[in-house]
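To start, one record:
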Amino acid sequence: MYVHSLAFKNFRRLKDARVDFADDLTIFVGANNSGKTSATHAIELFLSGGKDKFTVHDFYAGCWADFENFPAEGAIDAKVEFPAISLDAWISVDADNLYRVVELLPRAAWEGSLVGLRIEFAAKDAAQTLANFRAKATKVAKFAKTKEKDGQDYKPWPRNMRDYLSRELKNE
């Protein structure tokens, strides 16, 4: 039994990336800033089971605009969707090791050689997260109209959903 491949979505530099492993040895080689460290860090975060270690900066930068575009006011649709970070692990399993993964199989008549497992870091309840953000944003909106002493507009926390998640991600 061995890890056949890993697929990453929305983690740091890895919008949608896949790494195929050889059955004996795999080496990560690539240019600086190509995602080698991101891939190994994603593996570490997902396998440690520590959701508190994730930050809003672990999301692919293209997701940040998605977070920032959630309006601070308006009706909340029950089908609100936030970007999620995921790791798909494909494990090659021979008949002798099938007992190790039997609980992951969709049915007992499984006859394949690859077993897939998705681990995802996502909002527990996206509609509730949006409601929580909007409640905070509404509460501080009255302070946004004041000016600081240098004449700049004061923008209290949370300025947008990404700003909200920078502090509240582990709770949402």
About this structure: The two ends are 36 Å apart (CA to CA). Residues 8 and 17 are 5 Å apart (CA to CA).
